[in-house]
Amino acid sequence: MESNNSDDDNNNEIAYEFLPYFRAYKDGRVERFFGVDRVPTSTNPNSTVSSKDVVVSPESAVSARLFKPTTVGQNQRLPVLVYFHGGAYCFGSPFCAEYHNHLTSLVAEANVIAISVDYRLAPEYPIPIAYEDSWAALKWVASHCNGQGPENWINDNADLQRVFVAGDSAGANIAHNTAMKAGEEELAGLELNGACLVHPDFASKEGDVPEAWFFACPDTSGSSDPRINPAVDSRLGKMRCRRALVCVAEKDWAKERGLFYYEKLRKSGWTGAAEIAETEGEGHVFHLFNPNCENAVNLVKRRAPEYPLPIAYDDSWTAIKWAASHSERGGDEVWLNDYVDWDEVFFAGDSAGANIAHNMAVRVGLEGLDGARLVGIALVHAYFWGKEPIGKEGDNIMGKAFAENLWLFVCPSSSGSDDPLMNPVKDPNFSKLGCKKVLVCVSEKDLLRDGGWYYKEELEKSGWWGGVVEVMEAGGEDHVFHLFNPTCENAVAMLKRVAAFMN
């Protein structure tokens, strides 16, 4: 009788393995040792975050796990996070404990709606299937733009003008490529605001490509493939989002690849803002396996909007009260004790800072400021907005969308552009501005110009007890031009005008 040992040896010949997580045999068998568990969903009203599973595409059987804060109010709109798990394109799942727990923590911290995508895995479904499934998931999210999509959680609570993509390792690669595709193919009703790439899986600066990539994408050209090497992608500057956060870890094999990606993105001509965050003393995707360590907690916090409004208003009021505490000449700061006339106090700021200056003046009018007298405020190119466009605001479609979306991003709890913090005219306390004079500086080419004039006109009509509202307009200039060209004639003239206003 002949032995079958040779057949058994052939059957067990390994094509690729990524231990201790994955092994594939040449006969087509696959063994996955990570991501095969399935944590149940929960809609317990006593839990911080609720979750449920949905089918994204019945044709391909692609699904996703949805997460939302349990206490989100009816019709309250939250930012949306579309998340792609890691796993060398071959393993991992939104349903396993590591990713379920991570997304739960992230949703609780960031106060967002999250969709964790269960894209199909290689080698059974080689790349580009993972990209196609992930794009299908983003399109599925966009299908809810009119409030008539298949999923009520998104219809009722998702703000599709504040959508972010994120992922770790191979998932970060997918997030990048999804943002790139968004730059080429329009998603009606959805605005992609940012991409967060955690320990991203890309080619190195020298062109070295991870072995897992060749296994998952057998038809790749290697280092010349822009999907794994964004540095060779001539379209990199067209990535469709305004912000990118790249997270790297000190001891991660992929650290230099993340840093290289960050450098190339910044130099690509892309007009967004890129940030880099490095975690010391940690390795690749450490946050999944030690989620309660200090660095993992900080990583989750780093990906949430760090200090959303009203924190900036609270901090500014604290600083004002600290300064006023020197009015009795017994404060901590000698300069304020010895040189300040506390009967001649002014607030000033530009852009968002002008918004803060105005709101601080309203607070003075409501609460007073012990030991100090607010004489006036100088508002330079003030960041005010409203649902109804003023003047030519509606003509600049992109600028209008940016102004509205930026406000909702920094103040996710806001009711929208007519929030009194953003639209002073809608504030019932507008007339209680706690100063006697106001200087409004505007620029001819600034999107916020007409809003500045409107502020002046409405303040005069409001019944405000103060005396004078002045406007200075700089011809031919744009938003905060004085910061970038401080010695030009108009910048010097505006500086002199503000100085005269205070004297």
TrEMBL record:
Domain Alpha/beta hydrolase fold-3: 81-287, 302-482
Name of the featured protein: Alpha/beta hydrolase fold-3 domain-containing protein
A GO molecular-function annotation: hydrolase activity
InterPro entries, alphabetized: AB_hydrolase_3, AB_hydrolase_fold, Carboxylest/Gibb_receptor, Lipase_GDXG_put_SER_AS
Active site per database record: 169, 351
Membership in a protein family: Belongs to the 'GDXG' lipolytic enzyme family.
A Pfam family annotated for this UniProt entry: Abhydrolase_3
